[in-house]
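Complex record, two chains
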Amino acid sequence: MRYLPTLPAIKSPPDLQRLLDIALVAALLPHLFTLKLPMLLYLLLSALMLFKSHISKMTIYGFMLLGLISIVLSFYAQYNIAALSRMLVFVSLVVSLLVLAVTLQRMSRTINFYLIFSPVLLFILAFFFFNTITMLFYALSTLFLFLLLLVWHQMQSPLDEALKMSSTLFALAIPVVVLLFLLFPRISFQKTTFGFKSDEIARTGHDGTMHLDSKALLVPSQRVVMEVLFDETMPRDDQLYFRGSVLYRDKVSHWEALPAFKEKMVNLGRVIGAESLSAYAVTLYPHQRRWLYMLDLPTKYPKKSKLDSNFIVTSDVKIDETLRYRGSSALVYKTLPQSSSTYMRHALQTDRARDPRSLEAVEAMRLSGLDEAQKAKALVQFFKAQKLIYSLRPELPDLGHPTDSFLFETKKGYCVHFAASFANLARLAGIPSRIVTGYKADRKNAIENYLVIRESDAHAWVELYLGDRGWVRFEPTALAVADDLSAKESLNVLINELDPNSETTFMQRLWHRSNLYFMYGKYTLEHWVLHYSRFKQTALFKELMQNTMFLGKVIGAFILLILLSSVLVRLLQTKSCDDEVLCVIRPLLRRLKRAGLTKTSSETMSHFLGTVQRAYPHIDRLSVIEGLYQQARYGKASDEQLLSSLKIEVLYCIKAIDKRRV
Amino acid sequence: MQSTPLTEQIIAEVEKVIRGKDLQIKVALAAFLSRGHLLIDDLPGVGKTMLAKTLSRVLGLSYSRVQFTSDLLPGDILGINVFDRKSGAFNFKKGPIFSQCLLADEINRASPKTQSALLEAMEEQQVSIEGKALPLPHPFFVIATKNPFEEVGTFELPSSQLDRFVVSLSLGYPEHEAERKILSAHRSISLEELHAFGLDEVIALQEQCSEVFLSEALLDYMQSILRFTRESGIVQNGLSTRGALALANLSRAWALLEGRDFVTPDDVKTMLPYVTAHRLKSTTDKSDPEKIADEILANVHPDS
């Protein structure tokens, strides 16, 4: 036909080579993240060669040489072999060689079995490198694409029919895939959890020091630090303290931890009341440091990490990839007397001349005869009496006398100022004190047993050493008498450090809640699908054997899945309209309706088309449409040929109507 | 598709004599092709007889004409047994009905008995005389004309008889232009000057007509029309099955005349008034029988 020269392309699939190109591009996509620059350049060059109509043998040899050089360059200059496990080097080498072979084969323009198989091979190899949600979606869509291309090629049918067919196949496969998935868990490569690069951004909320100066100006970020899934019920809000670091040294502008030194490991039997144990699984996103945040007070911690006498768990290696670990903590605990005198000395270190008004106030309390607990109680009362105000945008305290400045002058601050002043006040009163920084989670960010911890949850609190009761947690921030609402609004974020009644709009709450559900879904998917390993399989099967209720639920869910997939298949196979001739002409009727010409039901098509002809005298093919339509709808044998020519005429007609509009 | 020229040639030939009546000629031809009989219902002097004569001439049919009067007897049409003295036996003398095209002029002037003799012969395609069945020639095409009832001395045809005519046609006065041409013509063309088509060709056309395809969708459409006439209550009696068959066959013939080998809803719509005009009587409005067809079409839609 003289119009619509591209239509045949929609009708039948492109040749096998084009289909293969599509499959190859899809399969190569994740490898672009792993291939090094020389290989990428080589790929780009060979892709450009595909546009050339003729490629000489010499060019192919040239490219072979070029490819080999690129591989050598990649592995010689770029790969740090020591940093990667041997298998990954091997796999990336295989990928590079495969890319070389595929490009050379593709340039020679002959299709053999090996070329047809290569997209699948490349696709499978990608699993060695990536293990994230993105990868899951990529894998599903690529599988579908492969299936579609195959069906399209085999059926030699229009794309929409191939699409329908492959969707049907996909829907039919769902229950089988789920069953196979349950029976054959993923191979768990500890080293292969790299993820796409965007997943690996360093996250820094808590950084091991606590600043009181302008560096401390809080920019609460909503970025997720970690996700926690509790085995049983979630602890109370006032128990959700995740320890990050313990700070002893008051450096006026900031507090810092003691440098690591060799110490005798203390006995870890500090737990009282085993019922207060809480076990949980943590997904910690890379923060490029070593802290493994654990709930106060860790009792069980993952391998390849250690627990120090400040109850801080640190990993043996830098956390530069998403880390999943299990742990358990005692929610109610009592620490044994501190064994190391070094810590004690530092916990009492204070410059008594720096904050004269605070010293005066502490002395006025006449604490000398009292025990530590009573002293602490008096301090809390005094702190409360200062009527301090919580504000995320406070005036900075005068660093010449920061405690005085905060307590008696500015009276505004956030957790950092509260903790620093309280700790210093305690030291002035002779109570050993230290500041703990980390994250204080909020149950507003939880769904059932799932909890999200964000940068904005970063917090600082104080621990006082109360003689035989050991280290006891104090929350000086809670002693604030009021919130500075204007400062909060200017930040326009949800403040989790504050009381739960903080005023937020409905939309904010809705957004917060839906975001949380989204994260929960993502986490569940990661937890149960991506990280479904042999261990989880064993646990699952054991549960199935023991728990009849659970077994029933699983079987029920499986039946539901089969039903769902058959419904999906049924839906795919129902035609959008039952009369295929009407289906073909409907676009034209719709277009005409928009143009103001509506066919009434009492009108016959030819009468209506006559009306259209009068409205659009320049369209010369309406009578052809009428003839074809009647032939197809009322004629003896309505065949595909007739319908497709009607389709073409309809498209032409719509174009003609559009043209007149312009 | 190849039949298009032939049917068009036939119409062109007829038009040489009957001017300005394209539609009526076509309908009359459709009635012939569907092997039905034609009833022309109109005032005298508008060309009823002329149409019948011309059609039979062009279609190459043997033609005879009977002027119906109140004293016409059945035997005058069918024929009578005549005693032959030489052989000493009764010989059957065929009446005018034994021709391929019979023009029954002013059929409503004859007595009901005579009328029914003709109509039975039309239906049976044969004549029974004293127990002997004599087949009528093939093709057999009756064109009956009928004066409006207001004329004096007419017997109204019962509706059961009317049903046997596939089409009822009304010619009406010619258009202004056409009439002027008739008046200005120096002489009228004599029928002998017209080209008569071969009987074989005409019979082949009838065969072709019966093979025109009627799709399921259109059968649905026709049945809904039937149901509407029977159930809606706008007419006294609904369309009979014979009437429905007439509609189907006429639609086929019309499709053939339009050059198609399948029927479309438009064919059905075009033919419906000719089928209903003499069959259906309105319960409310007596004036115009065509309004019934309009009302049916406004209420029953083909699904396209």
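Note: Residues 209-510 of chain A form one domain.
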